Amino acid sequence: MVTFEVEDHDGNRQSIEAPDDMGLSLMEVLKASEYPVLATCGGMALCATCHVEVLEGKDGLGEATDVELDQLEALPEMFDTSRLACQIRISEELEGAVFKLRGEEN
Amino acid sequence: MITTDICIIGAGPVGLFTVFEAGLLKMRCHLIDALPQVGGQLSEIYPQKPIYDIPGYPEVKAQDLVDNLMKQIEPFNPTFSLGERVDHLTKQDDGSYVVTTSDKTKVHAQVIVIAGGLGCFEPRKPVLENLENFEGKGITYMVKDPEQFRGKKVILAGGGDSALDWTIFLSDVAEKVTLVHRNETFRGAPDSAAKVFDLANNGKIDLILSSNLTKISGNGHLQSVTMKNKAKEELVVDTDYLIPLFGLSPKLGPIADWGLNIDKNAIEVDTTDYSTNVERIYAVGDINTYENKLKLILCGFHEAALMCHSAFKYVYPDQKLSFKYTTVNGVNSF
Ligand SMILES: Cc1cc2nc3c(=O)[nH]c(=O)nc-3n(C[C@H](O)[C@H](O)[C@H](O)COP(=O)(O)OP(=O)(O)OC[C@H]3O[C@@H](n4cnc5c(N)ncnc54)[C@H](O)[C@@H]3O)c2cc1C
Ligand code: FES
């Protein structure tokens, strides 16, 4: 299990514990935790509605792929810390990370 | 006013197939979609992806499926209002409806079918003060009629394929075209990116890279756009139009206010005929919900068939419908 924090659209932070051995994506965990993530394309890096900012722990995540950057760059707002939640796998590297929801709410 | 038997809101795969099922029963259809093209999610989100669960097609590209659906419904001559969002629904004394779009198009129909999928694909808007004040007064999020920009000064913003494609297209139409992009390179199709750089090198367009939009100004109509580069230097560019192209995102939109029973952004329906709680209004495809609903194209097609058989009674109140296979009569056009 890993523990990381999620900051919602109103700035409230909550600690989330998630299994790191099930191949889940951060988008799936956010949805399962009832965060209002739209995730229109279901995790295919096609819609960018699962946009998050990595406030802490960016180094553990590795570089975004070209496909991911394609989507992020299409958004009106993109930050140096921007990522797609569906492209982040839940692994032990996420321990202590902090994510801020940026994507569209459902 | 356009007059038809069935007004279909949403020209995604399910809306398109509804035309076929309605046509077999001699009911005419008019389709309205907020997007400038038909195909819904398939054309907008994943045109190049293969789909594997359409019966009879071991594999089909999403856009090819849409093209085939268009061919399949050709005999029934459906009419379309594209690039228009349906806003209002007004019930007439005889039970029929008049639908009004964002462009004030009016459609009179005996039956309304909502095939709105995830909702309206709406443009993602830049975060700019006073944005709403200039919408329709210089700011537009969709190029519906390029002639609108002939001889005008136009700024486009974005780095995806549509920003590149429209920059290339409008460079021959507008007096001056400026493209603003946040980064130094483009991730859209390499051919289009190369063409845009060529146009900039030949002085045909102004290319402003590594810059963000920060301010819009004007007196009633847009007059100038301010942008800031990474060194925080400001640049003010005079313009008649700003076209931000940052992609689209679905929102349920005005349908939510029509008195329909809605559960988590989806319309509740009766699974015997996919009717809603309001008489003569049906909902098919991704926009409806019921126990064990699956958001699949296949399921939407099935819903469209049952729904059309139920709608027949409103279009032909004096006739009794008897079920026939298409192989009995063929597909009779009108
Ligand atoms: C990445 C991805 C992959 C998928 N893969 C598959 C697959 O392999 N197999 C499968 O069966 N399904 C798949 N799906 C799901 C499939 O795309 C949907 O089930 C299908 O598109 C639903 O069709 P629809 O016609 O109901 O709605 P949509 O395709 O969503 O079309 C609805 C249309 O209605 C319009 N609209 C909505 N409200 C209004 C309004 N007020 N005014 C005007 N227009 C309006 C919208 O602009 C849109 O064009 C996939 C979806 C995605 C995102
Ligand atoms: S869910 Fe669509 S890009 Fe992540």
From TrEMBL, chain A:
Annotated 2Fe-2S ferredoxin-type domain residues: 1-105
Keywords for the protein's UniProt record, in alphabetical order: 2Fe-2S, Iron, Iron-sulfur, Metal-binding
InterPro entries (UniProt xref): 2Fe-2S_ferredoxin-like_sf, 2Fe-2S_ferredoxin-type, Adrenodoxin-like, Beta-grasp_dom_sf
Cofactor(s) the record lists: [2Fe-2S] cluster
Keyword Iron: yes
Family assignment from sequence similarity: Belongs to the adrenodoxin/putidaredoxin family.
Protein name (record): (2Fe-2S)-binding protein
Source organism (scientific name): Echinicola arenosa
Automatic annotation (TrEMBL), chain B:
Protein's name in the database: Ferredoxin--NADP reductase
Catalytic activity as recorded in UniProt: 2 reduced [2Fe-2S]-[ferredoxin] + NADP(+) + H(+) = 2 oxidized [2Fe-2S]-[ferredoxin] + NADPH
Species of provenance: Echinicola arenosa
Subunit-level organization: Homodimer.
Family that this chain belongs to: Belongs to the ferredoxin--NADP reductase type 2 family.
EC number(s) given by UniProt: 1.18.1.2
Known cofactor(s): FAD
SUPFAM superfamilies linked to this entry: FAD/NAD(P)-binding domain (SSF51905)
Keyword set, alphabetical order: FAD, Flavoprotein, NADP, Oxidoreductase
UniProt xrefs under InterPro entries: FAD/NAD-bd_sf, FAD/NAD-binding_dom, Fd--NADP_Rdtase_type_2, Ferredoxin-NADP_redctase_2
Residues holding FAD: 33, 41, 46, 86, 121, 286, 327
Domain FAD/NAD(P)-binding: 5-295
Keyword set includes DNA damage: no
Cofactor binding notes: Binds 1 FAD per subunit.
Presence of keyword NADP: yes
Enzyme kind, highest EC tier: oxidoreductase
